Every structure is written in C-alpha cells, then in structure tokens.
Amino acid sequence: MNGNADVTNELAAFLRLRRERLAPDDLALPRNGRSRRTPGLRREEVAELAGVSVDYVIRLEQGRGLRPSPEVLYGLARALRLSDDERAYLFDLAGQRAEARVAPSGQVAGPVARLVHDLSPLPCMLLDHRFDILAWNREMAALMMDFGTVPDRQRNTLWLCFVHPGLRDFYRDREHVMREGIADLRAAWAANAGDAALGELVGELQMQSEEFVRLWALRDVKVNGRGSKPLLHPRVGPLTVDFEVLNPLQDPGHRLIIYRASDPASQAALDEIAREAADGPRALHGAATG
Where does the source fall among the domains of life (predicted)? Predict the structure, then answer.
C-alpha cells in the first residue's frame, strides 16, 4: 500500500469485512425480529458495542479520513472480537501504536530460552518488556553477575543497575548507559500503560534511586536495538561489547540480548571470561525452559 489514502481505504475495508464476519449469535445479540439483508452485524450494533456513534462507524467504513484514538480502536477491536494479530493490524492501519502482546512475567518460550544457551560462548540473556531477566547463559552470568543468587523479584536489569551495589562500577560510561536504559524503559512504559507491574517497577526505582529520579525526569525516549557498552569487569579489567537486541516473532514482548567483543583486546577478555564460565555448570539458567 502506498500513501495515506490506501491506508485509509484498507482500514475501511478491514472494518467492513470483520463486521460482516460476525453474526448476532456470536455475541448473543437479540435479533429483534428484523430481517438482515447483509451478513454480519449491523453498524448500529458495532457502534453500541464499541461505545461510539453510528455516524462514526459509517465514516470509518467509508474511508473518510478519520484517525481513531486508541480508546476507539480498543472498543472496535473488542466489538469485532479481533484476535491479537488483527488488533495489532488495526492499530497499525490507524497510525496508532499497537498495544504490546506480552507474555506474563516469568513465562519463557522454551525454544528461545534454549537458544540463549545455544549461543554460547557469546554472552546472552532473554528479557521481557519489563526488563525482567527470564533466562541467561553461563557466559552472561560470568560477565555481569550470577543472576541465580538474586531473588526473583529483583532479577531485573534496571533494578540491578540502579540498586544492586555489585553493578555500581560495571559500566565505564555509566551516565550514558543508564540514560539510554531509562529512555528504553520509558518507551516500554508508554507502550504498556496498563501494565501495573511495570508501573510498580518505575515507582520502586523512584523510591530507591536518586540517580533514576534525575534521569527519568529528562523524559528521554529511545528503543535501543544495538550499540556499544564499555565495561569494567572485576577480574579481567576493561572491555567493550557491542550488543544486539532481537525480538522473537512469536513472542514480541521478549528481547534476546547478545553481546560481542568490539575489538581484539575485548575479545581476549571475553575468551577468558568464557573459560571461567566453562568451569561451572552447563545447565541453562532461567525462570523456566518450557
């Protein structure tokens, strides 16, 4: 599709098709003795279920250039019984950010969790949209810290970075790394406004870290898909890693974080860390492996 007109027309066609796909019996609606000349729900029924006017539904289905709000889109998605994929498509067509389809905290997709292990010797971990650490391999534990020693509730990258003393000096450019981390968190927080657990995390960090309060007030917003981080490992010394963030198609709320050395000296440091990690247990770490 090209241009706003095509998107508007596609939105109109999509809404019409989904309305025609539904029958009153699907929603336990009364038939009121009126015959139906066309299949599916009437526009009046969709309007009532979605909490909008009939005229608004008509204009949407006629492609008359409306840009519905997220609240209206949620109502339409609910009225039309859209699946997660259909709802995301509706939001995209309307030019609105679709709500994240997230897995419950602590739920790990088995294949992705196993991939974390398979990527050894590259340090790797799996996060959810709240930055909770769901799985990690032994190289990541040897590089950062043994996440298995941390209570489940605190096993969160941002909580550890801002509150746990073990990572206070881990980032050589701490200001930059923490500021980017908060910018990423703010984007996730806005995209998941209804997530009480994520809101609680923000509130807890505000209570426990003045540094977090200062950086959160900057209102930076940035999703960090790749970049570099200069680190200071307590045993091997300084090194720099490049990171890549991958989102599994089947679990878009998850983030697979992979570290690679930025230069030969850093590669030598990672090799030494990997040799240390090899002396430990080979089992995959994480909340669940599926």
Answer: Bacteria
The CA-CA-CA angle for residues 68, 184, 190, to 5°, reads 30
Provide CB contacts within 8 A for 219, sequence distance 6+: 186
The answer to whether 188 touches 225, Cβ cutoff 8 Å, is: no
CA distances from residue 268 to 157, 179, 265, 273 in whole angstroms, order as listed: 25, 28, 5, 9
25 and 164 both lie in a single domain: no
Asked whether the beta carbons of 124 and 147 are under 8 A apart, the reply is no
Whether the model clears a pTM of 0.90, i.e. scores above it, the answer is no
What is the spatial distance between Cα 76 and Cα 263, in angstroms, rounded to a whole number? 52
Of 93, 124, 140, which closes a domain? 93
CA–CA separation, 77 and 14 (whole Å): 11
CB 76 within 8 A of CB 45: no
Query: Does residue 259 share a domain with residue 122?
Result: yes
Give pLDDT, residue 89. 77
Single residue among 63, 93, 123 that ends a domain in this structure: 93
Residue 211 backbone class (left: φ over 0; alpha: ψ -120 to 50; beta: rest): alpha
Note whether 94 and 67 are within 8 A (CB).
yes
Bridge partners (DSSP) of residue 228 are: 242
Instruction: Give the pLDDT band of residue 221 (cuts 50, 70, 90).
Output: confident
Dist CA 189 CA 75 (whole Å): 22
State the pLDDT at residue 283.
38
Cis peptide before 121 (omega within 30 of 0): yes
